[in-house]
Amino acid sequence: MSTELVLLAVLMLAVTYPSRALGILTPGLDRLPHAALDYLQLVGPAVLSAIAAVTVMVVVDAGGRSVFHIGIEWVAVLACLAITAWRRNLLLGLIAAVLITVVAREMGLVALPGI
Amino acid sequence: MRRHLREDLPALTTTATTSASVEPPPGPVLQEGRRRLVVESLGIAVAAAGFGFVYGLAARDAGFSPIEAMAMSTLAFAGAAQFAAVGYVVGGVAWPAILLLTFLLNARHLLYSAALRPWLRDVSLPKRAVMAHLLTDEAFALAIGHFRRLGRTDVTGYWIGAIGATFIPWNVATLAGVLVGGSIPDPTRFGIDIIFPAAMVGLAVGLITGRRELVAALAGAVIGVIVALASSPALGIVAGGLLGPAVGLLVPAAAAHETAPIGTPRSAERYAMPGVHVDDEPLVEDEPLVEDER
User: Fold this and answer.
1) Which pLDDT tens digit goes with each residue over A22-49?
2) Contact B143, B158 (CB under 8 A)
3) Residue of B121, B194, B214, B262 to mutate when probing chain A, most A C-beta within 10 A
4) Residues B181, B188: Cα–Cα separation, whole Å
5) CB-nearest partner of B129 from A25, A66, A99
6) Are the beta carbons of B229 and A58 separated by less than 8 Å?
């Protein structure tokens, strides 16, 4: 059983724990500069949307090249986005995304992804 | 009107004089407060379990072993960062870049930590050290709401929210997901492959609390795809995550229409899993975190 990524988990702890502990453990800790706080507030939406977009829109072909991909995954992810924004409920969005994908694939509207 | 983010937090040195104490209030008040906390925690626990299960499935699908998936959940213990790490690993992102993005993604906890400082100042250092590791969006939202309702610190209440509602459900569900995932034949037939990108989008929606976040999200996606097509998916994700916020900052603060500044209970609720509402009391828009408890 692979344990290589355990080290990555330890390192992730090392870069996460200070953020959680500094305020609680360090008296007199001054606050971050305004610009840094503004930037940090935007990192979450940017990185998560980048991951989602790259995952559904870019595939690596047999030759190792990145190619643009259009498929039912777009519809499923957009449906999840819309439902989550509308109902503020990620679970409903995920269920809708899965249902759309499964139904489309069962109907043969799209081929199963080769990855 | 958007506030300066630093105004959301009490100055640590001055709030050392607040009435926050580890001494619990009289019995009936404490019991009622904890009863409500437990009710809120149940909703969080269910959501954490569901989401942890999906993380376990995604981790297994990405090739994580059960030990590796569990190490992430117990050590990093940060839902969005863990999901992102799965994407980074699959995309072949180098570890230093993964760590940089993990740090940036979790840096908001510094604000939660600073906001809790006045409440926990009388708690022993070892306990605070453990509390810090368990500080998540959900734990912060549960704790700060509980403390404010009591008007005092309740260490047991913190453990209820941090361990009972999040740490245990998240880790048990992760283990279940990474183990059960192997018994699901052809996951793509059941649409499991779509869960990860859909969850990423859903989490991003929960973080969008103003125009700057919206612009940053759109820019991150566009930049990510363009760079991924020009180079590799790994570089695209890193570029989108680092450059998207810079584009978002081009939106003038006056036009940002921020509705939940980071470091406030409301922002914690927004950062938490969408659909989870830990406190149905309406929060005054410009309400400070702790000063009103004096």
Assistant:
1) 888 987 554 667 787 778 778 878 888 9
2) yes
3) B194
4) 12
5) A25
6) yes
Buried b (16+ CB within 10 A) or exposed e, B62-86: bebbbebbbbbbebbbbbbbbbbbb
Q: Which of A26, A43, A110 to mutate to test the interface with B (most CBs of B within 10 A)?
A: A43
pLDDT digits (tens, 9 = 90+) for B166-193: 999 999 999 999 998 777 777 677 777 7
Q: At residue B228, does pLDDT exceed 80?
A: yes
Taking only the tens place, the pLDDT of each residue in A10-24 is: 999 999 999 899 888
Q: What is the DSSP letter of A41?
A: H
Q: What DSSP element (H or E) covers A58?
A: strand A58-60
Local structure of B250: helix, strand or coil:
coil
Three-class DSSP category at A1? coil
Residue B197 sits at the chain A interface (C-beta within 8 Å): yes
In this structure, are residues B47 and B178 in contact, taking their beta carbons and an 8 Å threshold? no
CB pair distance less than 8 Å for A80 and B198: yes
For chain A, the C-alpha Rg in angstroms (whole number) is 20
Nearest to B198 among A4, A12, A94 (CB): A94
Task: Identify any residues that bridge with A60 across adjacent strands, giving them in sequence order.
Answer: A66
**Under 8 Å between Cβ of A90 and B199:** yes
CA dist B143 and B116 (Å) reads: 9
Q: Which of B258, B1, B249, B268 is nearest to B111 (CA)?
A: B268
Q: How do residues B77-125 score in pLDDT, each as one tens digit?
A: 998 889 889 988 988 889 999 999 899 888 878 877 877 888 888 899 9
What are the chain A neighbours of B109 within 8 Å (beta carbons)? 16, 19-20
Per-residue pLDDT at B56 exceeds 60:
yes
- Give CA angle at B178 (B73, B38), nearest 5°: 50
Split at pLDDT 50, 70, 90, the class of B25 is low
CA-to-CA distance for B188 and A13, rounded, in angstroms?
A: 32
Spell out the alpha helix ranges (H) of chain A.
Answer: 4-25, 34-57, 72-87, 90-106
Looking at this predicted complex, what is its ipTM? 0.82
Which has more confidence, B46 or B37? B37
Residues of A in contact with B6 (CB under 8 A): 31-32, 34, 37
Instruction: Read off the pLDDT of each residue in B277-293 and give the average, rounded to a whole number.
Output: 40
